[in-house]
Amino acid sequence: MTTRPSPRLLEKWTEQDVHLWLMTEVKVHETLADKFFEEEVSGSHLDVFGKTDILDLGIKHGPAVKITSYLESLKEGSQHKSQFPAYVENWTKQQVTQWLLQHVKVYDKYAAQLREEDVTGDCLVCFKKQDFLDLKVKSGPAVKILAELHKLNNKPEPQLQPISDITDITEKPNPTQPELSLPQAITTNQPESQNKIESETDNVAEDTSENIQQFNKASEKDGIQQTNQKDLGGKGEKKLLGPQSKKKNKTSLWK
C-alpha cells in the first residue's frame, strides 16, 4: 500500500508523490495527474504553481480551479473542506448545466462555456468570482451563480429536468429602437430629401448638357452637308459650261 505524502514536506515531494496526491486527495482523473508527471512536476515545483501554470499543462478550467483550491489549502497546512452540500459535489457536467439554466437562469452561452471547460459539481464549489470572469462570464451572472450556490445550503436538493445538448447560444435581445417624434422624423428625413433633390438637379443638368451637345453636333453636320452641296454645285456648273464654251470658241474661229 502506497503511503500518502505528508503535506508538511511538500517541497520534498517527488513526481510520484504529486501524482498520488492528485489521485487520492484532489481526486482528478488519472489522465490529468499523468500530465503533471509527464511534465516532471515535483513538490518544489508544485509549491510555486498557480492556476495559469496548471492551465498551461493543457488542463481545462474546471479541474484547474479545483486543483488550485486544493493546493492553496495544502500550502496553508489545512484540509480542504467544501462549504456546500455533498450532493452538489456529485453533480456531473450535465447536472451543473441543468441547474444553471433551470434555477439560476443564466444565458445558454455561459452554461455551455462552463460545460465545455469540464466544470462538474466538485469543481463548481471551488469557483470564485474571478474564475467565472476568466471564462468570459460577466460580473452580473458570476455573482448570481455564487449567490444561488450558497443558497443551496438552506434548501433541499433542486429538481433537475433533463435537457438536450446545447447547440444554440442565446444572445442578449437587441434593444427596441424608440419611435421618433414628428419633428425628429422631419429632421431625420431632411438630409435624404435634400440628397434626392440634388440628385434630380444633377440629372436635369446632365440631360440638358447632352441635348446641347447633340444639337451642336447636328448643326455642325448640317453645315458640313451644305458646304459639300455648294462645292458640288459649283463643280457641276463648271462641267456643264465647259463643252458649250469650247463649241462657241470653235464657231467663232470658223467665221
Automatic annotation (TrEMBL):
Residues 188-255 are annotated as: Disordered. One of its GO terms (cellular component) is cytoplasm. PROSITE patterns: SAM_DOMAIN. InterPro entries: SAM (IPR001660), SAM/pointed_sf (IPR013761). Residues 200-209 have a biased composition (Acidic residues). Residues 245-255 have a biased composition (Basic residues). It comes from the Eukaryota. Residues 13-59 form the SAM domain. This is Sterile alpha motif domain-containing protein 9-like isoform X3. It comes from Gymnodraco acuticeps. The lineage of its organism: Eukaryota, Metazoa, Chordata, Craniata, Vertebrata.
